[in-house]
Amino acid sequence: MAIDIKMPALSPTMEEGTLAKWLVKEGDTVKSGDIMAEIETDKATMEFEAVDEGTVGKILVAEGTDNVKVGTVIMQLQGEGEEAGSADKAPAETKDDTPEPKAKADAKKDDGVEDSAHPAQEKVETGARQMFEAAKHDAQVADPAIPEGTEMVKTTVREALRDAMAEEMRADERVFVMGEEVAQYQGAYKVTQGLLDEFGDKRVIDTPITEYGFAGVGTGAAMGGLRPIVEFMTFNFAMQAIDHIVNSAAKTNYMSGGQMRCPIVFRGPNGAASRVGAQHSQNYGPWYASVPGLIVIAPYDAADAKGLLKAAIRSTDPVVFLENELLYGRSFDVPKLDDWVLPIGKARIMREGKDVTIVSYSIGVGLALEAADKLAEEGIDAEVIDLRTLRPLDKDTVLKSLAKTNRVVVAEEGWPTCSIASEIVSTCMEEGFDDLDAPVIRVCNEDVPLPYAANLEKLALISSDKIVAGVKKVVYKK
Amino acid sequence: MARNARAKSAEPPVPNRERPGEPQPYQASRDELLQFYKDMLLIRRFEEKAGQLYGLGLIGGFCHLYIGQEAVAVGLQSALTEKDSVITGYRDHGHMLLCRIPPKDVMAELTGRQAGISKGKGGSMHMFSVEHKFYGGHGIVGAQVSLGAGLGFSHKYNNDGGVCLAYFGDGAANQGQVYEAFNMAELWKLPIIFVIENNQYAMGTSVNRASSEDQLYRRGESFRIPGIQVDGMDVLAARGAAEEALAWVRAGKGPVILEMKTYRYRGHSMSDPAKYRSREEVQAVRDKSDPIEHVKKLLDAKGVKEDELKAIEAEIRKVVNESADFAESTPEPDPKELYTDVLVEKY
């Protein structure tokens, strides 16, 4: 009875990888727990364990093969009484419900805390995957901040964030990074990769798992004149620390009559990742954006991630910098400039259009751009705005676009109630009422804790189809 | 004798790690003792005046007085140098005066005036002076402990030789973040002295009703932070403890916990009816252990005459009255101040 052994996924968003090495050869007997192969992606190396006993039959993918799709059969394992290499003779006996081999990540794995042991699986069409797929859309309008003729370099969001930190650390001795696994582990999501090597353990500091405490230590260090970057492994864990972000960091300058500064950056992934369930999938943008005294930034592409993180580190004000795990591995053009810094508080037009304005930020921008493409096929010309900064909000850019298109849809990966979308709706009502030809519509996640089941997750999360449906409502088209 | 032996056996076993030396009462000169007296009296008269102004409606909101606890801050802060920083919770007026922040700046903040140290936007619980290395003045119980660890972190990062003195109460000692800060402070050998001002009551809850380990100086044991219990009603004991603690911390050996056993005469805040303890209890402490009366006796023994003390008293009353007059008469913040200082930069 042959068992198909398939290319495993290291993470829910992994699509392909390199079959780096076979540690078994045809005819070897293996038992559960034996390491059969090493799989690599750009981010991690993983040992691939056998789950079943048997003899290695045919090896179908040679070692050193790149771009092996997840789910590809890479080897066949023979049960008792079968000969090595004979699997192709008995395809009918292949089990339908093949037990999946267990994938065990080694210490170098990096694709997230909860991603470490995903069984190899067929590509599941999840809500998160839809967002991930949509996040390949680039801006269709050049950023006016980039000088003409500037060379552009494809960079992942992950690298862009790291480059921003490294550049600012080179420029200013007071800047340091602290957080869980930021140093020796090179970052739970590899965002701080290489920083320990360059800057040493005085400036790249592993903390215990103690969010409230280290957020307070970082905030106190900022009060003492340093420029901390505090990484939260995810912003879900920052809820334990929100007291220091809001009560200690945000209010100090005001309460001290402007004499005590708190120049700190709290950063980390925010929003829904893939299938991580309710406690690990939440957008804190609206929470922090409601607090006077904070700057809140949520970039979409790599150029913004770099330019805005540099600006955040330089700011004298406390900044909450909301990244997105699903975007980390996405590549976008980043201008090759010595010092690429973007202004805080300025939205960006990502696509020009005349019929309707779709306002979004972070991962929602990819979906909005995808929706705009779909709408274009139906003759609806959508403008897409990336807010980039959630506080202070660039109302002018939104209102100008509203004056042009007379219709607004807000697309937000987060709950609808008391959201950034709600805030945009209020702004349009209060300051753009005369320009409105239709009610402003919120297209958000469903108003429920994010479920785990793939189908429910997909139903709960925002999608480009939902944005398309929202736009059709405001342009009165079916 | 037998009682002594039993008490001894209840002590934790002799530690196998190095500990700071056993603090000795500070040998103060006549002038030093006079300065302690002046500082304690300034705090007491200042706080009494603040209580009065509160009663007149000139001070609003929460107002926590330091009366009874003066020896703690005076003894400890007298040992600090200009490199060192101080942070505390909301019972902060006394600590600020000892950081040499002008009394009228503090009083004007209490009355919510433009001339207050925070332009009237902070109030009693939220006052800061970076210039005087006083970092608040924090209204959330326990927050100052991890913030203080951050100040200690910055001293170490900048290698400036400074130590952070982080005060908190017996109530705050039960907050979770205190132990997160303890852990990191010892792990990273941060230059910080954790001062637990144990005034016996967290609002209305006595220490032994709230703390499974009521010997608070032991609270650092599981983090390997040495703790010392100190008579916080005795300014010389407080100063002596500060000397040992500073020597330990400045030698790079990490943090120390000082549990200062003290007592507040007034309610938790001005709005505290104080039903949780008897008037007799408070009076007994005042009669037997008052820190200012204690120093008066020491001064008498050193031959300081009553006249000299009266002159000091008169001078302090003058300073306090002037600060109160100023705080009453100086204008409220300009309405425009409502929108200033929210952010430092323009975006």
TrEMBL record, chain A:
Organism: Sphingomonas jeddahensis
Name of the protein described by the UniProt record: Pyruvate dehydrogenase E1 component subunit beta
Region (Disordered): 80-122
Annotated function: The pyruvate dehydrogenase complex catalyzes the overall conversion of pyruvate to acetyl-CoA and CO2.
Enzyme Commission number: 1.2.4.1
Primary enzyme class: oxidoreductase
Assembly mode: Heterodimer of an alpha and a beta chain.
A Gene Ontology molecular function term of the record: pyruvate dehydrogenase (acetyl-transferring) activity
Coiled-coil boundaries: none
Cofactor: (R)-lipoate; thiamine diphosphate
Stored InterPro entries: 2-oxoA_DH_lipoyl-BS, Biotin_lipoyl, PDHB_mito-type, Single_hybrid_motif, THDP-binding, Transketo_C/PFOR_II, Transketolase-like_Pyr-bd, Transketolase_C
Keywords assigned by UniProt, alphabetized: Lipoyl, Oxidoreductase, Pyruvate, Thiamine pyrophosphate
Pfam families: Biotin_lipoyl, Transket_pyr, Transketolase_C
Signal peptide bounds: none
Basic and acidic residues bias locations: 90-122
Superkingdom of the organism of origin: Bacteria
Catalysed reaction equations from the record: N(6)-[(R)-lipoyl]-L-lysyl-[protein] + pyruvate + H(+) = N(6)-[(R)-S(8)-acetyldihydrolipoyl]-L-lysyl-[protein] + CO2
Any one of the GO BP annotations: pyruvate decarboxylation to acetyl-CoA
Domain Lipoyl-binding: 2-78
PANTHER family: DEHYDROGENASE RELATED, PYRUVATE DEHYDROGENASE E1 COMPONENT SUBUNIT BETA, MITOCHONDRIAL
Automatic annotation (TrEMBL), chain B:
Dehydrogenase E1 component domain residues: 39-336
Record keywords, A-Z: Coiled coil, Oxidoreductase, Pyruvate, Thiamine pyrophosphate
Positions of region (Disordered): 1-28
GO MF annotations, alphabetized: pyruvate dehydrogenase (acetyl-transferring) activity
A biological process from GO: pyruvate decarboxylation to acetyl-CoA
CC cofactor: thiamine diphosphate
Keyword Kinase in annotation: no
Sections of the chain in a coiled coil: 295-322
EC number: 1.2.4.1
Top EC class for this record: oxidoreductase
SUPFAM superfamilies documented for this protein: Thiamin diphosphate-binding fold (THDP-binding)
Described function: The pyruvate dehydrogenase complex catalyzes the overall conversion of pyruvate to acetyl-CoA and CO(2). It contains multiple copies of three enzymatic components: pyruvate dehydrogenase (E1), dihydrolipoamide acetyltransferase (E2) and lipoamide dehydrogenase (E3).
Subunit: Heterodimer of an alpha and a beta chain.
Protein name, entry field: Pyruvate dehydrogenase E1 component subunit alpha
Gene name, Swiss-Prot/TrEMBL: acoA
